[in-house]
Amino acid sequence: MAPCCRTWAIRTSPLPSCVAGVAKSLEREQAELQGDAQPSTSQEGVDSSTSEYWQELISTPDSELFGSRARSASDAAVLRRKGHLKEQDKFINFLQEMHRTHTCLEVMQKVEQWALEHHRSPRSSRLKRMVPSLGSFFTPLRLVDAFMEYDEFFALSRRHFIPPNFAELRHILNIAQIHASATSLRLVTFDADGTLYADGAHMQHDNEMIGHVIDLMRAGVHVAIVTAAGYPNEPERFEERFDGLLAALRYQPKAVVNRFHVMGGECNYLLRVDRGRLAFVPDSEWKSEFMASWREDDIHELLETAERLLLEGAERLRLPVSVVRKERAVGVVPSAPTIYEVLEELALTVHAGLLAGPTPNLPFCAFNGGNDVFVDVGNKSIGLEALMRYVGVGPAQALHAGDRFTDSGNDVATRDCCSIIWVANPEETDFFIKILLADIEKREGRWGNGGPPASAQ
Ligand SMILES: [Mg+2]
Fold it and tell me: What is the pTM assigned to this prediction?
């Protein structure tokens, strides 16, 4: 289900008026925010003398704090950690719970059967009753085989006291999905930041994924990058992000290059390669009737409301921000160091506020970008459905790789329309796509369009 119509169990934080002393200082805070007063102790009775030390702790790179020891998990990284909030998923949590009474092998044996039943009857399956928020499985998942494969290297079954953690279960699910998807795959889509390259970076010439992307397309698979980044009428801004890949595509045959697309602004812009450059595909060629029906007045109203909610939320959280407004998106970027939890709170607050309305009946995606919080018009599910229709593939033939599948992430919507793999970083994407390519090679026994894999050349 798309975030726009998802029923979220959100418990908002206590209102500022619940915090002792805050009501008294509201006027003063307002003045501070407007720059009319000197910053001072934020709450009565709270000693602000440590604030500069906190600031230093969250803004200093780990390695500069205490030399090599700072690389341990006990240092500044703990404050900026993304692990806990990035690892929330009711299905994986359910698997973890089962390990209280089952071995990992027993869990996989049971869940594989339940998942098969769910694949056939997603609305009335036993798994759906146990995990009500579970979406669809578009392929069967051979979880026992995936567990055996994982166990071969990590010896999970030899552990007597420590059950698999969230990431280990995520890896097993990914392996099962990769093997299942490889048999009929015709479209792979990648999130960009955090999946193909580090947050805020670009796809440069030495990116390992370039060879893999080309190998997939040479094997006859369509590839698209589906990203929140949106630059209307500025294809060169997209080119800057993927310049390394675009340079490599210049040496590929047209039939291969034609299998590459970029979907920007979650679902608002589609680009293809035309004579070595990225060019927008005319809306009439790919947008659904539903997307074409969005009115500019409604989009403006949605973004106005979102901007107001973002600023109100940031003010409540005492987070100084600057606003970024685009044609189909609005976001805030902190202008002072902060931590992931604050951005998460802000993203969920804005999402809840937009659902509470009154707002135009438009789909939207309010998400924590890791370094910012944005609200985009539409979401990746709508974009992927349009793309799948455009290239002519069905849900079981498509696979999306992304790093943000929690409720505040912008990849979660893709679960509504195709299979997914959930990665934690670009290194994991590289790893899983290598497995996928090996499977496709086994499946085909040869490479589409001839020639060895590009990464082997
Ligand atoms: Mg991402």
Answer: 0.82
